Amino acid sequence: MMIDGKAVAKQVREEVRRDTERLRNDHGVVPGLGVVLVGEDPASRLYVRNKEKACTEAGIRSVEHLLPASVTQHELLDLIERLNQDPAIHGILVQLPLPDSIATDRILEAVSPDKDVDGFHPVNQGLLLSGGTGFRPCTPLGIMRLLDSVGCELKGKTAVVVGRSNIVGKPVALMLLERHATVTLCHSRTADLGAEVGRADVVVAAVGKAHAIRGEWIKPGAVVIDVGINRLPTGKLAGDVEFESARERASWISPVPGGVGPMTICMLLSNTLLSAQRSLE
Ligand code: NDP
Q1: Does 28-113 carry CATH code 3.40.50.720?
Q2: Domain range list for the chain
Q3: Is the separation of the CB atoms in 245 and 222 below 8 Å?
Q4: Average pLDDT, the chain
Q5: What is the mean pLDDT of residues 170-175?
Q6: Do the Cβ atoms of 170 and 136 come closer than 8 Å?
């Protein structure tokens, strides 16, 4: 069966909207998200516009900072520091990629870990590793929420994550481990990917290559989450999994588009609300 990412995302947005309203009514606090966008990249502009719209619908105040590509690292660090100090801003999002003239790591490390709603700061990465309560990255959080939405029991199950990036593969592997799955993390040098995937009760594919995961590899009854977003020569979008053949074997499978994609923004909203709630503590 299909995992309906759009429906789950709608539910999360509604929860965030309700809890944001409660926070405002009970404590007079409106969650604020500072969005930093450098340059004119149309895709980045579109992402930022979508994030702003989603914030507004959820009752979150989004404040955009649009900077020219010529901005210096020093000026950008100054802006981050102002946002760190601003009590009306609970989350800071730096839209990537940044221009080559800017050291992305320096900028991400300058964001206060308490406002790092993207979960990219090394402190928050470390807290995830040690099981602490920092901010967790949005796409992996969205994946976990999709698994929960179909009642997927993780304890004792075999989970295979394909892809070991810092923003998807590694953090989602840690979250699955935390929920007591037995986790294997695969990558481009994995000797026999088909055999690894074939043992999995839960497959998370975050490769970035269309159809890298063959349908015939999927163990009957497995739950498959496809994170990949790949543009085919035809212009259509495809995931990392051969959807039609995998679907015949999987008990649940997330489509592309309409699976993990819609979850990422709504987990950003959820993290921003969480940060505003934590600011009361
Ligand atoms: P990266 O390119 O950073 O990582 C890809 C990973 O896949 C690497 O670990 C790489 O291995 C591994 N890999 C590449 N080729 C193979 C192969 N043939 N077999 C096994 N493993 C392989 O990508 P991201 O993690 O950033 O993103 C992955 C996909 O998810 C992309 O399509 C991206 O667009 C999508 N995405 C979607 C999001 C959403 O909101 N839905 C959010 C973020 C990403 P190695 O480390 O050895 O190079």
Answers
A1: no
A2: 28-113, 138-261
A3: no
A4: 97
A5: 98
A6: no
